[in-house]
Amino acid sequence: MDVQQLTAVVGQQSSKINALVSEIRKRVIGQGILLERLLIGMLTGGHILLEGVPGLAKTLTIKTLSECLDLEFHRIQFTPDLLPADLIGTLIYNQKSGEFIARRGPVFANMVLADEINRAPAKVQSALLEAMQERRVTIGDTTYSLPEPFLVLATQNPVEQEGTYPLPEAQVDRFMLKVVVDYPSRKEEREMLDKLISTAVQGDGADASSIAVEKVLSKSDLVTLRSTVNKIYVDERIKDYSLDIVQATRNPSLIKLDELKSLIRYGASPRATIYLTLAAKAYAYLKGRAYVIPDDIKTICYDVLRHRLLLTYEAEAENVTSDELIKRILDRVTAP
């Protein structure tokens, strides 16, 4: 299929994406970037980490997305006393048969919301790590495959650190994107206020989740959309551009930014190059294009790289953020 034919297919499928977004918009006001990144994860199968203070509709948006898809959804509230068995399941003794049977945990779902993931202890985080990477779970001496598609959407609060366990770098790297969720604009917040007050007057309480939404995409529809995203054309120069950006995070001297050496302790892993290209393909698809352009790479680059750059103490002392370093790298690397 050439680019022109693929463009026509993308145009035809855009109605399904638009219908999905419209349905989600019945509940969620604003947060366009958050919704767009969640759609990228849905279309690529990449796990997403959402970071933001409470009350920014992170959980609501994920829950609404799951309700609009014909997929099994489970929400897990992570707490310090959570055990791996609470996540993956455990063996239960059956007195009638005299045998142990496996009782599967909430991780056995198509979409898993790991709410406040940084409140879980290390054992629970490692259990989730196997599920995210291997897409399988071991209960007792038996390994079970997780359902397809399988997507983990995790949230964490960056402000409150009491009773939290920072995610290890190995686990953070498993997330395709780290999305920083910001406050809504004044106009969006006013619209939100009016909508919730209207809902409360109707007797449903001031809760957006009480607004009904319909399923608009089936599992077979999602498979079809993902197949189209995989076919999005990526030019060789775009691939080299992605590679140059990631390589520059490891060796800033390549782009004559020697001053970054003292700020970056470790650069992005090879997984970043793969995820950057895949996410750019999904982003181009959402924009109605059958090919990736350099601006797609630049737009999605921050979400792919910000959690993969390990900064030095010097950078932290100077209040230099990962996003600032990524911007300096993008400004220096020549786009095709």
Which features characterize this protein?
alpha/beta; 336 residues; Rossmann fold; 2 domains; Helicase, Ruva Protein, domain 3; single chain; 13 helices
Structure commentary:
The chain has 336 residues and is of the alpha/beta class. The chain has 2 domains: 12-181 and 213-225, Rossmann fold; 233-332, Helicase, Ruva Protein, domain 3 (Orthogonal Bundle). Helices cover 46% and strands 15% of the residues. It has 13 helices and 11 strands. The protein has helices spanning 3-24, 32-44, 58-68, 84-88, 122-134, 169-172, 186-201, 219-230, 236-250, 270-286, 294-305, 313-317, 322-332; strands at 48-51, 73-77, 89-94, 99-104, 111-115, 136-139, 142-145, 151-156, 177-180, 264-266, 310-311. Strands 2-5-8-1-9 form a 5-stranded parallel β-sheet. A two-stranded antiparallel sheet has the order 3-4. Strands 6-7 form a two-stranded antiparallel sheet. Helix 2 packs across helix 10 and helix 11 runs antiparallel to helix 13 (322-332). It starts with a helix and ends with a helix.
Helix and strand topology:
Elements: H1 3-24, H2 32-44, E1 48-51, H3 58-68, E2 73-77, H4 84-88, E3 89-94, E4 99-104, E5 111-115, H5 122-134, E6 136-139, E7 142-145, E8 151-156, H6 169-172, E9 177-180, H7 186-201, H8 219-230, H9 236-250, E10 264-266, H10 270-286, H11 294-305, E11 310-311, H12 313-317, H13 322-332
Parallel strand pairs: 1-8, 1-9, 2-5, 5-8
Antiparallel strand pairs: 3-4, 6-7, 10-11
Helix pairs in contact: 2-10, 9-10, 10-11, 11-13
